[in-house]
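Inverse folding, one chain.
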């Protein structure tokens, strides 16, 4: 088992502006908040940081703006030990920004302005092809252009690199893209959109939705179910893997913690069910703390 498996992440970099309030505001309503935190985020960045916290060698492929937020994001990556050789500067777009409102019940709503993330091109990915080909696992999400994600997955598939697609934020996807994913990891709302409205509010419904999605090309589907853990489905079976019970204070980034951890555990040669069980534990630890990347646990804590 490798001590420091190589994980490559193609994805987004955002600055997270997190506001704490008693409850989520209604349309047109102004509420007084009781906390504020500026942090680093983006689904790609979060998954990269989680993988690095668990001891992986992580390379990030992405884009930031030529602004103070971009400088801060690059500095954060380097402090986390992440290779930023392929984090490029977009001279026209600002660094991506996310506004996150979290209530006292740990529910959240998020508004994202993608900025420079939309400038990451297939050509940028091809320029980093050797990095993707040398990785044990490639992690992708949908906060950068679909054609860029598709190109990254194609390069990885040709090189027999394990591919994990997190189809978030949820959009309708071509079968070609889904077919390039060894593992497709949506949450309940994302799989509902991808299957044309098939709900996943129970474990049984999640299994039915996963089998529907499998028909479109992924080799395995893992549906994340929040506090209920995750469901693993392939062409012949489905298995529910429960999560540890914890007292949640902030669910921001829990899905990213799960996926970043899953990539590391699989790269280390762990069997899928055990990798999911341990990724559940990582996500559970993350929701017991405030913030996104700030809440991600170290290997020793897991």
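Residues assigned per position:
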């Amino acid at each position: 088992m490798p001590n420091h498996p190589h994980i490559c992440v193609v994805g987004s970099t955002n600055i997270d502006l997190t506001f704490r309030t008693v409850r989520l505001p209604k349309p047109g309503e102004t509420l007084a908040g009781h906390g504020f935190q500026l942090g680093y985020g983006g689904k790609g960045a979060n998954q990269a940081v989680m993988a690095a916290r668990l001891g992986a060698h992580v390379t990030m492929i992405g884009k930031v703006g030529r602004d103070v937020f971009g400088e801060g994001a690059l500095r954060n990556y380097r402090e986390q030990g992440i290779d930023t050789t392929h984090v490029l500067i977009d001279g026209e777009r600002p660094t991506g920004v996310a506004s996150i409102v979290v209530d006292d019940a740990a529910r959240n709503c998020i508004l994202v302005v993608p900025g420079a993330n939309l400038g990451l091109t297939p050509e940028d990915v091809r320029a980093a092809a050797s990095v993707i080909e040398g990785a044990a696992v490639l992690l992708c999400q949908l906060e950068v252009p679909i054609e860029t994600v598709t190109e990254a997955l194609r390069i990885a598939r040709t090189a027999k690199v394990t591919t994990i697609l997190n189809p978030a934020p949820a959009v309708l996807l071509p079968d070609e893209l889904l077919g390039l994913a060894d593992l497709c990891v949506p949450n309940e709302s994302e799989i509902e959109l991808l299957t044309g409205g098939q709900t996943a509010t129970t474990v049984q419904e999640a299994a039915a939705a996963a089998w529907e999605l499998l028909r479109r090309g992924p080799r395995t589907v893992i549906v994340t179910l929040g506090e209920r853990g995750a469901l693993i489905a392939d062409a012949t079976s489905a298995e529910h893997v429960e999560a540890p019970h914890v007292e949640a204070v902030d669910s921001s980034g829990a899905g990213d913690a799960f996926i970043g951890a899953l990539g590391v555990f699989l790269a280390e040669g762990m069997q899928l069910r055990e990798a999911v069980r341990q990724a559940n534990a990582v996500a559970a630890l993350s929701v017991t703390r405030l913030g996104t990347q700030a809440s991600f646990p170290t290997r020793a804590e897991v």
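The chain has one domain: 6-24+36-295. The chain has a mean pLDDT of 94.
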